[in-house]
Write a structure and sequence with these properties.
The structure holds 2 protein chains of 2 kinds. Chain A has 14 helices and 17 strands. By secondary structure, chain A is of the alpha/beta class. Chain B contains 11 helices and 2 strands. In chain B, helix 2 runs parallel beside helix 4. Classes of the chains: A alpha/beta, B mainly alpha. At the A-B interface, helix 3, strand 9, helix 8, helix 9 and helix 11 of A face helix 1, helix 8 and helix 10 of B.
């Protein structure tokens, strides 16, 4: 009789409804800034993920397993992000999605690295992929890729000889500011005002006065979306006349919505946008708006493509193996022909950095207008 | 010089809004010994009443503003008095303070859950055009904020000093028992104070939200700034609260521009400590005197 107990017990466990559910789904938790200073970014990222998960699950999931993607709020706090990712790791995820804020990615990615779980996130700070972590992957350019592009535009498009830089004092902003200043120095463009602002800052009157009274021929604004909108409104109030140049966080749809008329005339480099002359991106933008009732920004595209990266790589390796996943994604190029959900051809290098085409854009009449497509950087 | 003028004008605009909120602090304290630590959230939430009226009920801007004032007076004035202050105050000031802290959290989380955690655009009362003033570009929005806020405080001052009801409120603030003997309906006067506070915070909300954007976290900054302003100016004087608000607004801007943007948040607290050390009753406050 005792020889029968163990096999019967094991069979009972295997056939139980709980086990059946676990086998039929794959756990891919998402950690995002759903409140606090990063709510705009995190909500877009989450909704992009929701859209992709709904599509994939409606078609039967990945390798026959549906995606189980719970969304956890970091409250835009690094300490909460770190605690939440530890809880996720305890539940043995296949891949972790998020967070978006670099300040939350940096402390949390050490835990996913130790657990050998791939983490596909939205952070853009250069430092993220410079720490030899084989489990971290970007969904957007790192600053070491985007800043040379914006610097070239500052030199060739704006033709500025002197610039002011306004940046947010967090990991994202500091990394961007350092990369931007280095690129300006290489091009003999003088940084005549260097203004640090705070994450979540609401009053930009003094910051605008500082840059306004500098001899800058252009102002580079590198803050998160809500702060960018507040800065633009204040700049408009104080009658700033020199060009306002930025990255995706200055030209994004949410910034345009919040800043209103004050966003008109803003120019810069855009990594991802649904307004690009790329049919797949435009179709995504329409789907997103229909599903959630608002226009997505670049974080929506980042979240959406992150899930399709998981689908493509998993189908390629033919199993749910976290270590094999990470190894396979290094050096991989995914084209829309291979995986339509990737929207644009993208390549990941050995550090987890992503390379793809990008855009130069400007805000005209309350809408983002793409004026030029830039080629891949060739990492 | 033009930069200095711009900083002062911007500071005055922000300070005028702090003043509105600080006056509410002072009024509540004088008439009912209520220290409202949800005062910042009282400024945050009326903007969302207006946004709901515009977005979901299809109201135009001005009707929505009227709705915002009405709901604020009702909920942040009468309901706050009846449901929070009266039941708690009989147990002492400390339980009431703790209740208002809890109320602040409740309001913040409720806005986050029921409306949005994201910042929302809020329309300004006037279109922003630039004016040249001594070489400085000054926005009509800033001027409008200063005029409306100072005008509201002046109107309140006139009401308190020149109308029968206002004088009755002052009498209630100075000595409740004597006011009763004189036949003043003390409870009604206290209710009026709460209604006025609701309206003042709503006005502050409608003026600040186009600049800060409407967001559930806005109360954190505003509540602290207004509380400090009220103490700096003198908690027992309306004019003190006004002065405190204006000083704080200007100092904040000048400190951010000429000292350090990183330490700007510490400036109000340094001023607070200095005032407590050298003039504990506040700049315009009077020792042991209470009047509105």
């Amino acid at each position: 009789m005792k020889y029968l107990v163990k096999p019967l017990f094991a069979a009972a466990i295997a056939l139980s409804p709980i086990s059946a559910v676990a086998q039929s789904t794959v756990y891919i938790p998402n950690l995002a800034e759903l409140s606090g200073a990063g709510a705009v970014s995190g909500t877009n990222w989450r909704d992009g993920i929701i859209l992709a998960v709904e599509e994939i699950n409606a078609k039967g999931g990945i390798l026959g397993r549906k995606l189980d993607v719970p969304h956890v709020d970091t409250q835009s706090e690094a300490s909460i992000a770190r605690a939440q990712i530890q809880k996720m790791i305890d539940n043995k995820p296949y891949v972790i999605l998020g967070p978006v804020f670099s300040g939350s990615v940096l402390p949390s990615m050490e835990l996913s690295k130790a657990a050998e779980i791939p983490q596909i996130m939205g952070g853009e700070a250069a430092a993220i992929t410079q720490r030899g972590n084989p489990y971290i992957f970007r969904t957007a350019f790192g600053q070491q890729v985007s800043m040379p592009k914006i610097a070239n535009y500052m030199r060739d498009g704006v033709k500025a000889k002197s610039v002011a830089v306004v940046w947010v004092n967090n990991d994202f902003g500091k990394g961007g500011r350092d990369a931007f200043v280095a690129e300006m120095t290489k091009r003999n463009i003088k940084v005549v005002a260097d203004v640090s602002t705070e994450s979540g800052q609401v009053d930009f009157a003094s910051d605008v006065v500082k840059v306004k009274n500098s001899p800058a021929e252009a102002i580079f604004v590198y803050t998160n979306e809500e702060e960018s909108a507040r800065f633009l409104r204040e700049a408009r109030k104080q009658g700033i006349k020199v060009p306002l140049i930025g990255e995706t966080t200055l030209l994004g749809q949410k910034v345009i919505e919040l800043a209103g008329e004050a966003a008109n005339g803003v120019k810069g480099h855009v990594g991802l946008t649904a307004d690009a002359p790329v049919p797949a991106l435009q179709a995504f933008g329409e789907k997103f708006k229909k599903r959630f009732g608002y226009a997505n920004d670049h974080n929506g595209i980042k979240g959406y493509t992150a899930v399709y990266v998981i689908k493509h790589v998993t189908e390629k390796i033919g199993k749910f193996d976290s270590k094999a996943f990470a190894a396979a994604l290094h050096g991989m190029t995914i084209t829309p022909a291979q995986e339509p959900g990737i929207l644009m051809e993208a390549t990941w290098d050995k550090n987890g950095d992503i390379d793809r085409q990008s855009f130069l854009g400007e805000v005209v009449g309350g809408k983002q207008k793409i004026v030029e497509i830039l080629p891949k950087a060739g990492l | 010089m033009s930069a200095f003028i711009q900083l002062v004008v911007s500071g005055l605009a922000t300070g005028a809004i702090y003043a509105l909120v600080a006056v509410g602090f002072a009024l509540l304290w004088q008439t009912s010994q209520t220290i409202n630590f949800a005062q910042g959230e009282f400024v945050m939430v009326p903007a969302f009443f207006v946004l709901v009226a515009i977005k979901y009920w299809g109201f135009g801007y001005w009707p929505a503003i009227a709705v915002g004032f009405a709901i604020s007076a009702l909920l942040l004035g009468a309901a706050f008095k009846g449901l929070v202050v009266e039941p708690m105050l009989r147990h002492g000031v400390l339980p009431l303070v703790i209740s208002t802290v809890a109320l602040a959290i409740l309001m913040k989380e409720a806005v986050k859950d029921f409306y949005s955690s994201q910042a929302q655009q809020f329309p300004a009362i006037v279109e922003g055009t630039d004016l040249d003033f001594l070489g400085a570009v000054v926005s009509t929005q800033s001027i409008a904020v200063i005029v409306v806020a100072i005008g509201a405080v002046a109107l309140l001052n006139w009401f308190l000093s020149s109308t029968l009801t206002g004088r009755a409120m002052q009498a209630t603030a100075q000595n409740r028992n004597v006011a009763r003997i004189l036949g003043i309906d003390v409870e009604r006067m206290i209710l009026y104070t709460f209604l006025i506070n609701g309206l003042l915070t709503a006005l502050a909300s409608f003026l600040i939200s186009p600049i800060y954007l409407a967001k559930f976290t806005n109360g954190e900054t505003l509540g602290l700034a207004a509380f400090v302003a009220a103490i700096v100016g003198g908690f027992n004087q309306v004019r003190g609260a006004v002065l405190g608000g204006l000083i704080l607004g200007i100092l904040d801007n000048l400190a951010a521009a000429y000292v350090s943007a990183q330490y700007r948040a510490a400036v109000p607290l340094v001023v607070l400590v200095a005032v407590i050390l050298w003039r504990p009753q506040g700049i315009l406050g009077r020792v042991e005197e209470r009047s509105v």
